[in-house]
């Protein structure tokens, strides 16, 4: 009796649910959700922006360095105060390597990348939610990155990078423990 009931129940569900699912439009039309870059240059810049975040989360700082020009203006004043800093790719990677590996995990979720091109120069923005995990602690910042690029030898390079903080949640003091952890692991 149980198999007959289960079979009848499955048929009844399929008869009512499947036409409703199949006939339903998607919750978000793909054209609304996936704004593709309109040129190869825009796509290349979007790849760089996403790659920096992914490689930073993986601690692969050597792979990140190639995306930067010989001199970079880095502005985290909305997050830390301080001043805008000038870095070489090596000094920026050293700075990041002094803290990011001290977290158990980071995740920089990059989305809504927008690119404006003008010959061999470009400006781009990307929204970000950056999650930082350490032991039972959690720290999250969200905001928008602003980038400036220059095309050198047919490669786009970041010359300026600004983070504009929009929101923060969790325990900011985790950064101090991450700095300590990273120093111990070197």
Write a brief structural summary.
This protein has 186 residues and is of the alpha+beta class.
Describe this structure in words.
The chain is α+β, with helices and mostly antiparallel strands and 186 residues long. It has a single domain, classed as Roll (Nuclear Transport Factor 2, Chain: A). Helices cover 40% and strands 38% of the residues. The protein contains seven helices and six strands, in the order ααααβαβαββββα. The chain has helices at residues 2-23, 30-33, 40-58, 61-65, 77-80, 89-97, 174-185, and strands at 68-75, 85-87, 105-118, 121-134, 137-152, 155-170. The chain is globular. It starts with a helix and ends with a helix.
Describe the SSE topology.
Blueprint: H1 2-23, H2 30-33, H3 40-58, H4 61-65, E1 68-75, H5 77-80, E2 85-87, H6 89-97, E3 105-118, E4 121-134, E5 137-152, E6 155-170, H7 174-185
Parallel strand pairs: 1-6
Antiparallel strand pairs: 1-2, 3-4, 4-5, 5-6
Distance between the termini: 67 Å
Number of strands: 6
Q: What is the mean pLDDT?
A: 86
Helical proportion, percent range:
40-55%
Q: Note the beta-strand portion.
A: 35-45%
């Amino acid at each position: 009796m149980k198999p007959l009931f289960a079979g009848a129940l499955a048929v009844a569900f399929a008869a009512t649910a499947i036409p409703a699912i199949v006939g339903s439009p998607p919750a978000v039309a793909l054209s609304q959700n996936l704004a593709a870059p309109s040129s190869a240059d825009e796509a290349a810049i979007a790849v760089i922006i996403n790659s920096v975040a992914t490689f930073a989360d993986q601690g692969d700082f050597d792979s990140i360095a190639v995306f930067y020009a010989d001199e970079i203006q880095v502005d985290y004043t909305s997050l830390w105060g301080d001043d805008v800093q000038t870095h070489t790719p090596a000094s920026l990677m050293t700075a990041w390597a002094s803290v990011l590996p001290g977290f158990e995990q980071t995740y920089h979720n990059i989305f809504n990348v927008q690119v404006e091109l003008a010959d061999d120069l470009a400006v781009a923005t990307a929204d970000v939610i950056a999650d930082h995990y350490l032991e039972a602690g959690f720290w999250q910042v969200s905001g928008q990155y602003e980038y400036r690029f220059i095309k050198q030898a047919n490669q786009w390079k970041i010359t300026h990078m600004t983070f504009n903080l929009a929101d923060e949640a969790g325990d900011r003091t985790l950064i101090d423990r991450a700095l300590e952890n990273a120093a111990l692991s070197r």
